[in-house]
Amino acid sequence: MNKIFGFLTFVLLISLTACKSSGEKTEEVQRQAMKIVSTDGSLTEIIYDLGYGNEIVAADVTSTFPEQAQEKATLEHASQMTAEGIISMEPTHVIGFETSIKPDLVEQLKAAGITVTLLKRDYTVEGSKQTVKSVAEWLGNTEKGNELISKIEKDVQKLEKTESKPKVLFIYARGTGMMMVAGENTPMESFIELAGGQNAVSGFEQYKPLTPEAVIEANPDLILMFDSGVESLNGPEAIFDIPGVKLTNAGKNRAYLTIDGLLMSGFGPRVGEALRILNKKLVELK
Predict the structure, then answer these.
(1) Model's pTM, two decimal places?
(2) Which of 14, 22, 134, 229 is such that its CA lies 20 to 30 A from the CA of 61?
């Protein structure tokens, strides 16, 4: 009797172990089968930070960080993506922001059997933290997500208070033939204010073409640009050749700052790092 009971116990233990191993293996296979198309550079960055970069099969053109992301198949900006282009990548999942992907595209992807995850976007520190949290929960790695959020909070805590709020003019440039300034309700205005400055222009929303008169009237203390924008002008010295700039406080003091585009405008896991760069410059202006 004891021998029979012992044998049955042994069989039960083997069965339980096998079931557990099978469950773990199934879960592992499911994770390996996940093939992601990321439609935003900040989301791509978060996915890599969480340890799932290998599961990305394609990403949008803004996905420039980390460097490994540039090795992925590149798609257009989210607003210009087509169902055919995404489906050709054979993804199982597509992730993006609600304001970036057109509703009809979402329906086409779902009809093709692709899981589409859309997140809300808020160009604030809290919004950045929420994006990290949402992606971490989506991928099932909340522990690492909390680490990224903690880093954002620590970086933001290091921001220094500016005695005054220097006026900052953000110029978006793609060569001398295309230069725009960022107005109200833009990510750049939010970025400037969070760092301790104020937008040098007001009275209009989004972006409008740069004019010498508007630059002189704004009289910024600092010119802010993307690295790529300055490169399109053939270097930092060209900033002071922009019509009107030499007559401003920024021009007279040769005060400018350039930051990587994704780092500055992405509001991703490095948002605190980006804010510290601008904040340091603003503090130096006093």
Answers:
(1) 0.86
(2) 134
